[in-house]
């Protein structure tokens, strides 16, 4: 058994045996997301069982992307699993980014407590669309930063900032004369004001997706990641792997939904036979088997590209589209074959359906990725026919 398989086996045992019973824990906020007390209890149990941040070794080195997939799929078997073992978004992507480009001081001050699962984080990039701010097109960024002595002062508004209301660390993108910049900050800060936390279809992550005002936020110059103007380059360091790890976690969730749906249709009878024996039902779960296997193959293919040292922008776009849409089909079929039970909170299937629907939008909706891929097709044709 490989290192990754051994870790994944421990993570799967922990998620199935310890985390799954907490899916009915009543400690939730108004939106149904896990309350801080529930998160801390889950993480204490993860430390006790030796599965905290399992894809990063004690010396700070990461498993390969291919091996990370093995572990993160196991962590995703419950919507609470990634939160419990510290493989959840946005923390996982933020840890990867700081590990890749952070200075020694930044790693000691900001990354270390994140690896220990004692601090959660937020990534401040998306802005309100009504104000013409950055969304799928980050070049539209309106948030500004200017040098003031040995600090930078940030002004602007951000929107859909996941778990900002409960984060202890933030990574903020802003625009200077030199171009995009990226900063790491301590939270809370009086200059970072939560304006609203709208209810959304998904609720697996604490703190929701916040609208945030940055009112004269002062950040020491040594907390800039890299140099002025390098922010978009560093965003790409984070975004391609982060798209892929989303796919890993939600593949795990949909494998669980398939298990639950399979158990249901193999026990339930109608019209004189078990539901699984009706082709209209059995064929849907057969199609799920195909989609789930194809998702795993796409994830492995993209992970291999990242492990070769490729930027994997194209591979991650293709994988994000293919996996998010396939998993949506899987979750939808699971709901359908379970009938009224599938849309109730009697099982976790209905939540997985909601979470996967949101997954088709965040980290770039399918349409944006297809548009980007179409541009590449045109560029490649123009180059070949010049």
From TrEMBL:
Cofactor(s) recorded in Swiss-Prot or TrEMBL: FAD
Name of a matching Pfam family: Acyl-CoA_dh_1
InterPro entries: Acyl-CoA_dehydrogenase (IPR050741), Acyl-CoA_Oxase/DH_mid-dom (IPR006091), Acyl-CoA_Oxase/DH_mid-dom_sf (IPR046373), AcylCo_DH-like_C (IPR036250), AcylCo_DH/oxidase_C (IPR009075), AcylCoA_DH/ox_N_sf (IPR037069), AcylCoA_DH/oxidase_NM_dom_sf (IPR009100)
Domain Acyl-CoA oxidase/dehydrogenase middle: 123-198
Keywords in alphabetical order: FAD, Flavoprotein, Oxidoreductase
Domain named Acyl-CoA dehydrogenase/oxidase C-terminal: residues: 229-376
GO biological process terms on file: fatty acid beta-oxidation using acyl-CoA dehydrogenase
Coiled coil start-end: none
GO MF assignments: acyl-CoA dehydrogenase activity; flavin adenine dinucleotide binding
GO cellular component: cytoplasm
PANTHER family found in the cross-reference section: ACYL-COA DEHYDROGENASE FAMILY MEMBER 11, MEDIUM-CHAIN SPECIFIC ACYL-COA DEHYDROGENASE, MITOCHONDRIAL-RELATED
Family: Belongs to the acyl-CoA dehydrogenase family.
Name recorded for this polypeptide: Alkylation response protein AidB-like acyl-CoA dehydrogenase
Lineage: Bacteria, Pseudomonadati, Pseudomonadota, Alphaproteobacteria, Rhodobacterales
